[in-house]
Design goal:
It is an enzyme of class 6 (ligase). InterPro entries: aa-tRNA-synt_IIb, aa-tRNA-synth_II, aa-tRNA-synth_II/BPL/LPL, Anticodon-bd, Anticodon-bd_dom_sf, Gly-tRNA_synthase/POLG2, Gly_tRNA_ligase_bac, GlyRS-like_core. With 516 residues, this protein is α+β, with helices and mostly antiparallel strands. It is 39% helix and 25% strand. It is built from 18 helices and 23 strands. The longest helix has 27 residues, at 101-127. It is globular and about 75 Å long.
Length: 516
């Protein structure tokens, strides 16, 4: 199945099974804004807990805060967002659709990469086990041709970005013969910059209102609280401040479902270090964060680091953790060495001293910062994409069937246990309710008595429930139940009294943390 079709099925699955809904759907929706349904909010909360506990519980020198969305407008002047938080946009005159110029060029680069990979895949099938991928890429004529085109385009693109050369970005689009996906034409406008911040007014009267912004990132809330946390927590450098919160960006090119939205949630750590040690800590956090992603078990080959070609104005090092989505490798997390830019800017604009006295060095300095920033929504999409599977099954009567299953890691699964009475009568439903009542304070449990057991199993597979327990007449005689495992579909007969320990060992976050 084509990856594009897989993604369409995934989007449909998210709605059908209560994971993600279009916001304001009964009013025809609101572009690039989504709501999380009953299963989606559970998965999202579990993702946030996995991140929060891995940061705050596993690191003695990391604490958390929750800063306000509304902040003093001068903060955004100091951070550079008022003057420099822009995207290069280009319109197609025929379709009237607007695009990010840099994204169009990145997609063209990805097309060259796809062509190289197709040549490699064909060669693998042709040569079998004797295939030497490295040698093939270095000698095959077509691969070398595509690689040369990629190298040339990448070089022009990086230079144009670093020079903020909007005319060159348009020229690249023209030279590469990039067409609008809607109209199919190359009738482009000039490239221009567009600020992404939402603004509003705070105040009781129009004359006295203060123009403020919905925060485009959560990081600044940490920076302006740096001294408060450091002093009240008696924190010693190096130390970190973690935060989970909403951010808002007026994305003109918002697409690929929840991958890029106008209202989204971030999980960010700002780690404060001595000047001169920031690149060492950058490397440490780079490895720590990759381990966090790979602990989920979705295959190391599906992750990679992407070094930034153009550094943000505040950074001296930057790398993305990318995951292989159905639409290609895309960023799920950014790790940046932000130097002392943010704290120094806030010190200058506020007129307040933001320094740290280091008793070991017997000197004061403005700390440098290493940041890890991950989008909750992108992480949600990544887990859904990695977990979604369709498996062909053969029933006892020989009929073919398709099982749709979400292989979500058990600690993150929205529902941990489904309890299913074989039938409603003979006291089976009541016994099933007893089991639910005993375990519902330990796990998120679900009771289901409608349809055949097979159909109920399929429903639980589709939302990623790792365990199903069936209560039958034997249960009433000896206190045992049938437990069915989602991934293998194997079934065991176990005592009701053992359920808690069996399930606890699999759904605990400790199982993930043990891999870090």
């Amino acid at each position: 199945m084509a990856q594009e079709d897989v993604f369409k099925k995934l989007v449909a699955h998210c709605k059908e099974y209560g994971f993600v809904f279009q916001s304001s759907e009964i009013y025809d929706g609101l572009g690039a804004v989504y709501d999380y349904g009953q299963n989606g909010v559970e998965l999202k909360n579990n993702i946030k807990k996995y991140w929060w506990d891995s940061m705050v519980l596993l690191h003695e020198n990391v604490v958390g805060i929750d800063s306000a969305i509304f902040m003093h407008p001068t903060i955004w002047k100091a951070s550079g967002h008022v003057d420099a938080f822009n995207d290069p946009l280009i319109d197609n005159k025929d379709s009237k659709k607007r695009y990010r110029a840099d994204v169009l060029i990145e997609e063209q680069l990805a097309k060259y990469e796809d062509k190289i990979e197709k040549e490699v895949e064909k060669a693998k099938k042709r040569f079998g086990e004797s295939f030497d991928e490295k040698q093939f890429k270095e000698t095959n004529g077509r691969v070398l041709e595509y690689q040369a085109k990629w190298d040339e385009l990448q070089g022009r693109f990086v230079k144009a970005l670093n020079d903020s050369n909007l005319e060159e970005l348009k020229q690249i689009i023209i030279d590469q013969e990039i067409v609008c996906p809607i109209s199919g034409t190359r009738n482009w406008t000039d490239v221009r910059q567009f600020n992404l911040m939402f603004s509003t007014e705070m105040g009781s009267t129009a004359d006295g209102a203060l123009k403020i912004y919905l925060r485009p990132e959560t990081a600044q809330g940490i920076f302006v609280n740096y001294l408060n946390v450091q002093k009240t927590g008696r924190m010693k450098i190096p130390f970190g401040i973690a935060q989970i919160g909403k951010a808002f960006r007026n994305e003109i090119v918002a697409r690929q479902f929840i991958f890029r939205m106008r209202e989204f949630e971030q999980m960010e750590l700002q780690f404060f270090v001595r000047p001169g040690s920031e690149l060492e800590w950058f490397q440490k956090w780079k490895q720590t964060r990759m381990a966090w992603h790979q602990a989920l078990g979705f295959g190391q080959e599906n992750y990679r680091f992407h070094e930034h070609d153009k550094l943000a104005h505040y950074a001296n090092a930057a790398v993305d953790v990318e995951y292989r989505f159905p639409f290609g490798f895309k960023e799920v997390e950014g790790i940046h060495s932000r130097t002392d830019f943010d704290l120094s800017q806030h010190q200058q604009y506020s007129g307040k001293k933001i320094t740290y006295f280091d008793p070991e060095l017997n000197e004061s300095y403005v700390p440098f910062v290493v940041e890890t920033s991950i989008g909750v929504d992108r992480m949600f999409l990544q887990i859904m994409a990695a977990s979604y599977a369709e498996e062909e099954m053969t029933s006892e009567d020989g009929k073919k069937d398709i099982r749709v299953v979400l292989r979500i890691p058990a600690p993150l699964a929205p529902v941990k246990l489904a309890v299913l009475p074989l039938m409603k009568k003979d006291g089976l439903a009541e016994k099933a309710r007893e089991i639910i009542d005993d375990l519902k304070f330990d796990f998120n449990c679900q009771y289901d008595e409608k349809d055949s057991i097979g159909k109920r199993y399929r429903r639980q597979d589709a939302i990623g429930t790792p365990f199903c327990v069936t209560v039958d007449h034997v249960t009433l005689e000896d206190g045992t139940v049938t437990i069915r495992y989602r991934d293998t579909m194997l079934q065991d007969r176990v005592k009701i009294s053992d359920l808690k320990s069996i399930i606890s060992g699999e759904v605990s976050m400790k199982k993930l943390f043990a891999k870090l």
